[in-house]
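User: Quick sanity check before I run a bigger batch. Here is a single chain. Can you write out its predicted 3D structure?
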Amino acid sequence: MTAADPPKAAVVLVVDDQPAPRYIAASWLRRSGHRVVEVSTGGEALSALQGQKIDIVVLDVGLPDISGFEVCHRIKTDPALGHPVVHLSATSIEGRDRAEGLDRGADAYLTDPVEPGELVATVNSVLRYYRARAEAEELARQLAALSRATLAMNGAATVDALVAAVAAGAVEITGVPAVALVPSAMHLRRAAAPAGGGPPVVSSCPAEVLTRLVRHVAADRETEPVREVTADQLGGSVQAGWAVLSSSRSGHPPVCVAVADTDRPSNRVVEVLVQLANAAAMAADAHRLYEQEHNLALTLQRSFLPDRMPDLPGLSMAVRYLPAVQGVEVGGDFYELIQLPDGRLLVAMGDVAGHSIHAATIMIELRHAVRAYALDGHGPSAILVRIERVLRHYYRHEYATLCLLLLDLERGTLDVANAGHPPPLVVGTHGAAYVTAVGPMLGVGLPHPPETTARLDGVRTIVLFTDGLIEDRPVDIDAAMERLRVWPSLDLPPEDLCDDLLAHFGQDKSDDVALFVLRWTGQSAAEPGGPTQIGDDHASSPSTWNTRA
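Assistant: Done. Predicted structure follows.
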């Protein structure tokens, strides 16, 4: 709309206690295309403004109940009103009257008698100014909403958070219910957001919904970025409306932003929605790439680890590997279970420092070295000495932690050698305790002490883990280890215990978590006497573990 264009029809409130001039002014405004509401007092005028849609007020000054100046002042100082006001008076025509009227907020001041064309032109001029300002303010509000939505989308940690941010942003921009569809690497996610600020409802959606939308909308996208859609085309259980699609590049699945409105959005709103959809498509691509790389890294990581557990009579075992929530590189956490020819079982839990293919490569080499030295008949401490030699020779600037447990169920003994790793937690009739077995991490070149040998009398469960399970920056490491030691579910079966520990200790961690639980399901074969017994007063303090990768 240019300055020469007449404004679209408006609702004009004409306030005058004299019927004749009120009728004349109202007639001129109606003939120019406006709809007119007539009242005769200031109180009626304020009530009309509160009760119905009014675009502009033509206000007499000399009203019987409230001065027109005071009515204007109340309109302009009430945040809920703020309507444009044109004073029209046949009595208050002095310069000081005009000055007071303008000082108290009037947008124009006319004296009666006035030419019909002057009244209409003044009303139209004030309307053009207010509507242009309102459009600018609305555009600024929509762009601010777009900016907030873009920040929320770029900061979304999951696809569900992303699709919810898109739908909520569309609602904030348009003020009507909205639906967003965002494809991920594996699924199509939908968010339906109500008007009024309620939380979006996120759910899965059949992939065919997006396929049908692409066919429906794509035909007109070159000339018309928005296309009318039905509730069924949006996946059902949502309102029909208007949709825009956007993809970051050819061949990539698009995102869909739809607003539930019977009227076509204005061109300005469509442009803002297109920008929202474009930003959503870029964010969706980033999430899709992250998911693909994360799944690839997880598959690669798990391919490095044992694919099955040995089936040993009288023992039940469970193992879990949980990748870090941040980053997509493979880590250096590993575990190994080796059934030796003489029936003993060697359990290894280690962690190579870093997250990279390089760290994973070192992890593979150390894991295979452990297997080779164990099959050659070396004990846990001798294996650590040899692994130290391998690491120092081939990877002089790399470090790792490693804990080795050798279980002899026939003799009822447990040999433990530890190189800077969290100590194993044993659970039995006397409660839970960490095995006192400490030593320097691998790679620092320090000697490794002999293994600790302990009786398995009364022991029912052994828990091994990497530091990712208990490390949490706001929490002291000793406090975290003590919390694990007294955790109430330690008597659960291994599978259930792994799930419970990961649910309470392993969520949202910045490091990988490897967890191994072994439990005796039959009677212990331990014989009386022999080496140190685990349980009574042999519980180690968490502070004895002071070196880790």
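Residues 231 and 240 are 4 Å apart (CA to CA).

User: Great, the batch can go ahead then.
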